[in-house]
Amino acid sequence: MLSRLALLPLVALAGCGVLTDSSSVQRVSAEGAELLAVGIGERGQLRAAFRYTGVAPEAGCYALSGYTVSTGTPGSAVRNEALVKDVLVRGSDDPCPTRSARVMIDSLDVALPSPPPGTYRFLFERRGEDPLSVTVRVAADTTVVGT
Asked: Which of 22, 35, 113, 146: CA 20 to 30 A from 1?
């Protein structure tokens, strides 16, 4: 169920903890993105949280290192579109249930420069393929009216 509660800028990775040295950084390729919540940010922009799943090049226990979001500028033709790319994870010292190449990020927060209402498109980078696309229609009160 979608939540319209305030979104936290916190990003958590399922099952992992303390990061080790930067030599174990891996770039993740998107496998899935489930919309969890929408809201309005401090500057009036649309904010959306996704449960993100992806695949790292090697099996391991990982924690999120960072990611990049590219958006259109207000007034541009792509102002309602965001590209999530360069999702990076690092090896974790904490034990995880299974060493796997699959990575799950519990809440990946993305902001777009334009406020609701509108139709918004979120693209998630995949290696060697077109980006994974999630389109969301949002009412002025941040109610999701279609995906």
From this structure: 113
